[in-house]
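Reply to dn_fold:

You asked what the input looked like. This is it:
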Amino acid sequence: MIKKTIKALWIFLAALMLLCVIIFASIAYGWIGYMPPVEELENPNYKFATEILSEDGKVLGTWSLSKENRIYTSYDELSNNIINALIATEDVRFTDHSGIDAKALVRAVVKRGLLFQKNAGGGSTITQQLAKQLFTEEVAKNTLQRLFQKPIEWVIAVKLERYYTKEEILSMYLNKFDFLNNAVGIKTAAYTYFGREPKDLTVEEAATLVGMCKNPSLYNPVRFNERSKGRRNVVLGQMEKADYITEEERDSLQALPLKLAYHRVDHKEGLATYFREYLRGVMAATKPDRSDYRAWQKQKYYEDSLNWETNPLYGWCAKNKKKDGSNYNLYTDGLKIYTTIDSRMQKYAEEAVTEHLSQDLQPKFFKEKKGRKKAPFTNLLSDEQIAQILDRAMKQTDRYRLMKENGASEAEIRKAFNTKQPMTVFSWQGDKDTLLTPMDSIKYYKYFLRAGFMSMDPINGYVKAYVGGPNYTNFQYDMAMVGRRQVGSTIKPYLYALAMENGFSPCDEVRHVEQTLIDENGTPWTPRNANNKRYGEMVTIKWGLANSDNWVTAYLMSKLNPYALARLIQSFGVRNRDIVPSVSLSLGPCEISVGEMVSAYTAFANKGIRVAPLFVTRIEDSDGNVISTFAPQMEEVISASTAYKMLVMLRAVINEGTGGRVRRYGITADMGGKTGTTNLNSDGWFMGFTPSLVSGVWVGGEERDIHFDGIAYGQGASLALPIWGKYMKKVYDDKSLGYDQQERFNMPEGFEPCAGTETNDGKVTEPGLDELFN
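and this is what came back:
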């Protein structure tokens, strides 16, 4: 009987072993459950975020899918602290097993399965956990499902150990894990919670993150600081048991409070938000198809078509393919995009915009409009016109669109827009909770002045700083490269350059009297000046530009062809097809973007050669291979002789004319520039350049009918110039950037077309177009 029993047990054991072999073989060959193909095991389908990096090596931001904000981190980029904490806590025999830790498995079966000890620990190795993350799509809903999943994970773990080194498995695990708060992977987590790179994590910081691996929701340090601290201390205890730290180190580290340096990962926050969004749109663009554009988008179609043909960065994803023949994806392929932006200069530009708008202009604007029924609009508008503007703005909101799509009637929508509700609104002192109707919130946001700024190197086209508005979260329309506004007197250098190309000289004289021109329709046009100083005297062309004098400008326009002027403006890189070749074009009624203006002005600093803005220098794939490089695009638009003459006159704008107040900011550099103001002070401009930097600023309201009423605050010298001054002061003060106020333009020896200096008697004025047209 005993022999039969023993024999039966051996048969049962052999059958059980055979059954296990059959089951595991079936799993390995994919006959039971899901077994990923060898190709997937060798190349797991990770989705890595694209990194946008500054010229000085800082991460400006990332592009990713909503739940895949992962940035690839190699083993060499991990600190020993994070590796030691992970091994000590999750798999202390990680370096000794081949995917399955038999000792831990037996312990788990006996203690948890037979003795029901919940705190006995699990049997999963780091490799098994990685297998679960990579290839188990559905979380087990009960113990039975988990029992079926476990053998599959064991087989996958063994295969992973066959294809990868231990170091690769550790980095894969840490790259894959979701640490919550949009922090997927160790690199994003280290920055999100501690503002560090993974290689710089301290022991206690590494222990905190590893502690989250047990249950990131339960041990979320942002929501549950004390609970997370307790879990961190458990990890530190495990590290001491594994001899990674001493007992004294454990005790001192456990006593520390859990301090975070939390950075919420949000594409609407951080440095260069407008730039990143502009770049994303450019790179993700597809080949323009006229049927995709509405009737009023002819200009947009023209620009996109031109960019598709001439700009290798435009539509980059659609134009470039990976080894497998598919197109690159900005959100999943882990690209590294190296931009020309300097993070320090970008910071200074954003600070300059914020300081001037929040501390100076906006308080003055609120004060001027306070108590006015039609505010923030000009009193020149009728109530009906204001209602039309607000109605149009309402129909452009997501709220209106969603209500319309859900079948709400026009009456229901308007009732909702005129019903008060709690909301949080932007202010320069911080977000405010208030009770407003959605219609009132639309009007409230129109009170805020907007700005556009760009700064670039005139030699190589590198765009160093890019600010599209005051605050991307609340004002997303980009006024650096996307929006266009009337440019006013900043257009005059193009006319003066045309005059120099046609044989004029800065020292040519003209009698300073009112000029009347007849346009091609036979209509007389007589521009006016802001004042009549030196009336009837002979003045030089140089004096005319320095003082932004409209009579001298009109005189030059009478000697030149408006069609030639329009062609020259477009040769400077302006892509607006609606530039009207009229005599009034000389005073800047056409609309141009800040980016186009900055690019155009590089010709004055660069001997007549205009360079297009360069935003990206190279792109690397997730393995660090360079897959695209980008070079400056430049062309000669005026002769070097003309450029030198323009340089003389544009320097006089600063040293003798309307741009003189830039010196109040401590800027002593050799520079040229031009102020600009448009009709009723709707737009304020300042273009300024040194031998190494060309920067442009626009300031105005969202609508052209939102503006200062008086010239004192409404002119370009008040609206825009201070931003340029503040920015350049910060740039010069930062010696690490290498810009020096002692730098001088390289002029031909003895080149001075007009000897002597003419001043504007210390008066700084800039006429608006409302003072120019009859």
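Residues 70-254 form a domain with the Penicillin binding protein transpeptidase fold fold (CATH 1.10.3810.10).
Hope that clears it up.
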